[in-house]
C-alpha cells in the first residue's frame, strides 16, 4: 500500500511540475550554464497539491520533479503546517526569511521541534521522518537531487485526500 501511495504522490508532483516552468525566474540573467537572479526576478506559483494549500513555490534551477540537481524556494504563511512525512532523497534546507520549525518523528510534537531563524541551515537525510511548521511568513530554500517527493507517515494527512 505504501508503494502505491508513494507512486501516486510522485505522479502528482510530476503532473504539478509540468505546470511549472523549469526555471521560474523572470528577468534572470543567463550566461552559458550560469543563472543570476535577484529577489525581484523570482516568480511564485501555487505549491504542488501534495503540500497543504497556502504555500507558493519558485523553481530557481533544474526541475525538482525529474532526476538531477534542483533549487527551489517555498514561501509559507504564518502557522503553515506540514504533517509528518519523509522524502526518498536527501534535502538541504536554508531559511531565507522568517522562522521555520522542524522536528523528527512520526507525530507532530511542537515541544521537540527545532526553531530555525533567518540564515538557519538543516541537512535532512533521505527517508528521515519529520514534520514542520512556521511561526512567521517564511521563505525556505531547498536544494538536492530530484525527483523531489513526499510520503506522509499517515496517508490521511496527504492534502490530496481532502480533495476526494
What's the short version?
By secondary structure, the chain is mainly beta. It has a single domain (2-155), classed as Jelly Rolls (Sandwich), CATH 2.60.120.10. The chain contains two helices and 13 strands; from the N terminus they run αβββββββββββββα.
Break the fold down into its secondary structure elements and pairings.
Blueprint: H1 2-18, E1 29-31, E2 34-36, E3 45-46, E4 56-62, E5 68-76, E6 81-86, E7 91-97, E8 99-104, E9 114-117, E10 121-124, E11 130-134, E12 138-146, E13 151-152, H2 159-162
Antiparallel strand pairs: 1-2, 3-4, 4-5, 5-12, 6-11, 6-13, 7-10, 7-12, 8-9, 8-11
Description:
The chain is mostly beta strands and 164 residues long. The protein has a single domain, classed as Jelly Rolls (Sandwich), CATH 2.60.120. 13% of the residues lie in helices and 41% in strands. It has helices spanning 2-18, 159-162, and strands at 29-31, 34-36, 45-46, 56-62, 68-76, 81-86, 91-97, 99-104, 114-117, 121-124, 130-134, 138-146, 151-152. The protein has a six-stranded antiparallel sheet with strand order 3-4-5-12-7-10, with no helix packed on it. It has a five-stranded antiparallel sheet with strand order 9-8-11-6-13. A two-stranded antiparallel sheet has the order 1-2. Strand 1 and strand 2 (34-36) form a beta hairpin. The chain is globular, with a radius of gyration of 15 Å. The protein starts with a helix and ends with a helix. Residues 1-19 have low confidence and may be disordered.
